[in-house]
Amino acid sequence: PWRSIPGILAKVARDTSRVMLIVAAASLYSWIMAREGVPGMIASFFLTLGTEPWSFLLMVNILLLLLGCLMEPLPIMVIVVPTLLPVVNALGIDLIHFGLVVTLNLMIGLV
Known about the structure:
Oligomer: single chain
Strand content: under 5%
């Protein structure tokens, strides 16, 4: 009925504000990590473990599956993907392939 529309809109606004608060906090955390040089340190760590793309993708799969079980996918993407992109570029992994790996692993972890 038409009378329930204001209540529905209020619930949608509350749910959206919760998600946006999580995204804002994740963006701030990601900015702090980038400012401190954490992506470069993580890139050098992964590159010392091995320069094979398949071994890196295996480690990322495990990491994302574990994180997907504990957190929402959107904040994980905001925090983890910018951190791992220097390694992905250094290993020559296609960005579309990496995006699919990230998305599918997070969805499997969420389920």
